[in-house]
Design brief:
Blueprint (H helix, E strand, L loop, with lengths): L2 E5 L2 E6 L3 E3 L4 E8 L7 H16 L6 H13 L2 E5 L4 E2 L1 E7 L12 E7 L2 H8 L5
Antiparallel strand pairs: 1-2, 1-5, 2-4, 3-4, 4-8, 5-6, 7-8
Helix pairs in contact: 1-2
Length: about 130
């Protein structure tokens, strides 16, 4: 099944959310950006770069930068919907875009969605687990 990722009302990409961890309420998959994604991409590439730098240097203080980028993403009001337009309640949507890092240019993008609760997970993903 195809799912859409929206920033407010604008479709910024799609995904099959082909991987799951039902116990954690997580769906994950390849992210296929739409043309509109380019208007938002810089925030996701900056966040990915900041997270990579932090994971390589645990003592480095990048919390203010991460907080600023997380605020920008919250302001996008990311939504997960079915192709029919039904919004799926989620706690968080995280787009992994490493395209600004030379070693990762050309690599596929990924998206992770943390579903709001087990009832929502069962409603939209039951029998659709990998």
């Amino acid at each position: 099944m195809k799912y859409l990722i929206k920033a407010k009302t604008e479709i910024i990409g799609s995904t099959d959310l082909e991987y799951s961890d039902e116990c954690m309420g997580i769906r994950h998959g390849l992210f296929v950006p739409s043309g509109a994604y380019s208007d938002f991409q810089c925030v996701f590439t900056e966040l990915f770069s900041a997270e990579m730098k932090l994971s390589g240097n645990p003592g480095e203080q990048r919390i203010p930068e991460l907080h600023t980028l997380s605020t920008k993403i919250r302001e996008m009001e990311l939504k997960l919907t079915t192709e029919a337009g039904n919004e799926i309640p989620v706690e968080n949507i995280h787009i992994e875009d490493g395209s600004a890092i030379d070693d990762l240019k050309g690599e596929p993008l990924h998206v992770t969605a943390i579903v709001k609760n087990s009832e929502t997970y069962a409603q939209y993903f039951s029998g659709n687990n990998t």
